[in-house]
Amino acid sequence: MTISFIHCSDLHLGYNQFGLEERFLDFGRTFSHIVNDAVAREVDYFLIAGDFFNKRTINSRTLLQAIDGLERLKGAGIEVIAIEGNHDKAPYEDRDSWMHFLGERGYIHLLKPTIRDGKLVLDSNNVLCFPKIRFVGLGYFGSMTERRLKELSELLNPSEDFTVLLLHSAADRLLHLGGVPFEAFAGLEGVVDYAAMGHVHERYEIDDWIYNPGAPECWDLGEAHKEKGYYHVVISNGEKTVEHIPSIRRPICDIELDLSGTFTLEQVYDKCLQAVLEGGAESDDGVIIRLVIYGQVTFNPLTIDQARLAEEIHNAVSPVHVEIINQTIQEGYDFDSFDAKLDRAVLEERVLKGLASSYFSSRFEIDDHFLDEIVHAARSIKALAISNDEQGMTDAVQALAKELLKRSPLPADESQGGAAGENL
User: How far apart are CA 321 and CA 16, in angstroms?
Assistant: First the structure.
């Protein structure tokens, strides 16, 4: 008996990136292409490993995009197995998500974990069996992922049926954003034949049983060089064959330009336009341009008119969108072992560390390790906010509060408000 399925994730339907209609259509078009391929290959199952939608609250046009593709899969007799990602979960004021709606309407089998007395329970909500194959769905757990994987390893028994685990998390990646070390999967290898991952927008594979396809469209333009797509998996006589298929996506011309030694604003505009033309942007129909400028210039970098620069690029090559990231600095500023191409993350870390040192030095005994922890927490919360992960933000703030309480010089009954950390 041969079984086959498509595994995709992070489709982010409904994302009108930059407020552009073209980008809204791009994400829908990519999903439609994967659906068409699944139908053409006559697969048995279609797996969505989280973040089917870009937002927890969607509009009617996004729902129509989703239903159009799901109806074609249903008409072809393809069963859709899905879990919720952090973008799909129901808003706190609502009980059910739009993924729940699709499940109730029979478009998808939504696997949702059952938690009883604080522990994972395996039941019909998260385990779905078909002939010769079973699906186990954990969804998204954020900081609780490692604990849930341990519980699953104690509950899930080996089976002669091919076992697929659907999980919206990261293995050995994003450890500060809900990702888990590979060791967290201990006990599942040999029980799980294929871990269908989502959450990370770049393809990766671990030990021939953990697979992450990468988001099929660029949710962020910085993903332009990352490998993305979806998997076609065929199981025959208990053996699997996995093929990663690159997805269709909007072309992105990603240009990095060193402006060191530039003396005038006109030189900046001329160099940028030349770099865009030489970068092949005009050869791509409907291209998005991402231009990162860096290096030391002789004038205030804030005087670079990004609106003018974007307009000149639009006039020259007619792209769908231009994103300009200005990382230049003025000559003479001391940045401790300055690199001409100053990474934004490094600059952000330095600023946050300075602010944390200034604020906490009068309140706590601080050292470099403590400052690193504060910076790490602040950047994690920022990233979680960008991804609309409300539960993740709550977990991160609580963890930070606990760490601050450990270092508080005042006992609980002497701190302001009568309880340590009450105002954190």
Answer: 12
pLDDT of residue 12: 98
- Degrees, nearest 5: CA angle 103-220-68: 30
Cβ 354 vs Cβ 335: under 8 Å? no
pLDDT class of 401 with cuts at 50, 70, 90: confident
Q: Are 47 and 195 in contact (CB under 8 A)?
A: no
Distance CA 148, CA 134 (A): 19
Question: What is the rounded distance in angstroms from the CA atom of residue 265 to the CA atom of residue 267?
Answer: 5
In the three-class reduction of DSSP (H, G, I as helix; E, B as strand; rest coil), residue 241 is classed as: strand
pTM recorded for the entire structure: 0.80
Please tell me the distance from the alpha carbon of residue 93 to that of residue 73, in angstroms, as a whole number: 32
Quote the CA–CA distance of 185 and 182 in Å, as a whole number. Answer: 6
pLDDT score, position 19: 94
393 vs 396: CA distance, rounded Å = 5
Which among 109, 141, 108, 138 is positioned nearest to 121, based on CA atoms?
A: 138
Q: What is the pLDDT of residue 416?
A: 38
Residue 323's DSSP bridge partners are: 290
Q: How far apart are CA 31 and CA 35, in angstroms?
A: 6
pLDDT in tens, 185-212: 999 999 999 999 999 999 999 999 999 9
pLDDT digits (tens, 9 = 90+) for 255-288: 999 999 899 999 999 999 999 999 876 666 799 9
Of the candidates 168, 96, 163, the one whose C-alpha atom is nearest the C-alpha of residue 138 is 168
Q: Which residue carries 């059910």 as its tokens?
A: 96
Distance from C-alpha of 249 to C-alpha of 66, rounded to nearest angstrom: 18
> In this prediction, what percent of the chain has a pLDDT beyond 90?
70
In SS3 terms, 321-377 reads as: EEEEEEEEEECCCCCCCCCCCCCHHHHHHHHHHHHHHHHHCCCCCCCHHHHHHHHHH
Asked if residue 203 lies in contact with residue 213, where contact means CB atoms within 8 angstroms, the answer is yes
What's the CA gap between 244 and 231, in Å, rounded? 4
